[in-house]
Every structure is written in structure tokens, then in C-alpha cells.
Write a structure and sequence with these properties.
elongated; 12 strands; ten-stranded mixed β-sheet; single chain
Length: 149
């Protein structure tokens, strides 16, 4: 199975105002989503041939995650790991771009990820309620997630 590629256009000038779209992922997805960013400088494509890149992501719980990205065909490419998607909620991220000796460092504008909650089965201990149970509704056999007390 191939990864899902999410194309982004990110500007080092941080003036790009077209990033109102939110990328949605599912909690605990691992190596299934690849961010592919074209990096611009004042709306002109930026030459990344002598650069390195990292993804800096602020998870919904405030924890910072840094992940090495690759430069491929003058795009920054980063496949998200389980660590990046472990917590559901809204995350913000940007790419840090630097030259090979790290004497010049720049960052793209911020983009946003919405990490949707995953329904993880929890093994019940004897007489312990499970946080989420899928129950069949009596009216039309519709399945619905409910908190079980």
C-alpha cells in the first residue's frame, strides 16, 4: 500500500494566506501519510538543493516533535510517524530549512493538522467498564459509539 501524499505550498516569507485548509489524519496512523511541501520565497520556488529540512510539530498536548525530512525533486518530503499522530486534537507544524552547515536557518509558514481520534479497543478487566463500546440501537439497529458507565 502506498502512502497518502498531502501536497503543501509553504512560503519562507510567511506571507502565504492560502493555508486555511486543514489536513486531517487519524490518531496512531503510522507511515501512511506523507507531507510533500513545495517551498517558496515570496511566491517563487526556493532552491533546496543544498539544504536539509526538519518537521517541527506541536502536538495537541503541547509536546514538540521534531522529525527529519528529505529533499526530493526540490520538495520537502516527510512521512509522519506514530509519534506525530499519537494524540488526537489540533496540531500546528512548520518545516525548518537550513543549509548543510546550519549557518543559515529559516522556517516556512505554519500549517495545521487535525488528528482525528482513533477508536482503540481496550481489554476489559473483570467488572471494569470499557471507555468506548459500540452498541446496537434498538430502534433501527444503527451502530453508535457511546460512553458506557
Amino acid at each position: 500500500m502506498d502512502t497518502v501524499k498531502i501536497p503543501l505550498a509553504l512560503d519562507l516569507s510567511k506571507q502565504n494566506s492560502t493555508l486555511n485548509e486543514i489536513t486531517r489524519l487519524r490518531q496512531n496512523e503510522s507511515s501512511s501519510t506523507t507531507l510533500q511541501a513545495t517551498v517558496l520565497d515570496h511566491n517563487e520556488e526556493f532552491d533546496l538543493s543544498q539544504c536539509n529540512a526538519e518537521l517541527h510539530l506541536k502536538k495537541p498536548n503541547g509536546e514538540i516533535c521534531v522529525q527529519v525530512a528529505q529533499i526530493e525533486d526540490n520538495d520537502v518530503v516527510c512521512t509522519l510517524t506514530n509519534e506525530s499522530t499519537a494524540i488526537s486534537g489540533n496540531a500546528e507544524a512548520y518545516f525548518q530549512i537550513c543549509n548543510k552547515d546550519k549557518s543559515i536557518v529559516n522556517t516556512t509558514n505554519t500549517f495545521y493538522l487535525q488528528i482525528l481520534p482513533g477508536l482503540m479497543p481496550v481489554k476489559k478487566k473483570e467488572n471494569e467498564p470499557q471507555p468506548i463500546d459500540l452498541q446496537v440501537m434498538n430502534n433501527n439497529y444503527e451502530r453508535k459509539a457511546e460512553w458506557v458507565k
